[in-house]
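From the pipeline queue, job 12 of 40. The input is one protein chain; the requested action is below.

Action: predict structure.
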Amino acid sequence: MTAPAPKPDAGDWRLSVAPMMDWTDRHCRFFHRLLSPHARLYTEMVTSAALVRGRQLRLLEHSHEEHPVALQLGGSEPAELAAAARLGAAAGYDEINLNVGCPSDRVQSGRFGACLMYEPALVADCVKAMRDEVGVPVTVKCRIGVDEQDDYADLQHFTEMMLEAGVEVLVVHARKAWLQGLSPKENREIPPLDYPRVHRLKREFPQLVVAINGGITTLEQVQAQLAELDGVMLGRAAYHDPYLLARLEHVLYGTPLPGREDVLLRLRPYVEAELKRGTALKHITRHLLGLYQGEPGARGFRRVLSEGAHLPGAGWGLIEQALAPLTAAA
């Protein structure tokens, strides 16, 4: 009989999945949790205004199984962020994370995201206001620089301000952001990665938990980063090849490696419960498309789900049907 995996530690940042707009919704997070019992999961960014002024509390919905799970907030008004953090903590989130890294025009127009790296004092005020309201960790996700503000001294100063504000965990995307001229997609690819800058930050601030994000796609790369840092946050790699999470869970935590089909079968009760709630199957299956990435029959698996999940009455049977090309390939 296989020994059960050790329980997740709420203070463990070794492995996490990045907040990704339109991707890391509650269905995605439930699926990722089946692959990795320990990975720290993050919501899509939720604006403080949507929670406090818009009263869109539905944005806080999540499953008990998702823990440890963090709520990422976007905003720049300390009082409003404090109120939003209080709502997030009351909803049961294990961490409140402030977005100081998103470079999109929409985010800039709201004066939050990466443009806040120009205003470390304001970010510090926001962190202090949130920490005064909640007992869970308040963390910050930032870039290594922004536009022409790209010297290590700028990142060093930003980090000093975060420490003074009480931040204990900093997640650093190891690329700077160009706020003008590059799209969000280009900002994830064009600015060069600078891992040594993040490593230096950890050496100079050993009391700070530092996790790195950006361009990390393999088990070997994760292990190399963990030799220097406290944690690795995966983004697109975890979404497009979600089974990578299971392999990392196995290596980092000793959890038995599940079969891909076993993961799907464990998802069945969730799928059927959501269908009864009125959730369309397509909202769940879109997150499953990469599960068999690189495996024989994977294209057929994706095709069946993509073509059928949006049809009226689509249910669990479609997922079983999608497994047929894999069985044939095997």
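Job complete. The chain has 16 helices and nine strands.
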